[in-house]
Amino acid sequence: xxxxxxxxxxxxxxxxxxxxxxxxxxxxxxxxxxxxxxxxxxxxxxxxxxxxxxxxxx
Length: 58
Fold this sequence. Notes:
Layout: E1 3-8, H1 17-25, E2 34-38, H2 41-49, E3 54-57
Antiparallel strand pairs: 1-2, 1-3
């Protein structure tokens, strides 16, 4: 499967708790932290929900 790099570029302060939990599930939580994931439908769905807080690279 393809890999994607996900970087958090905006803070989770004043966001709904579901978005904060999604960031935690992705392994993020601090600004400019980058993680690499397989591009599965589950991961892509989570990235889509908090995409306004992230930068995605293929």
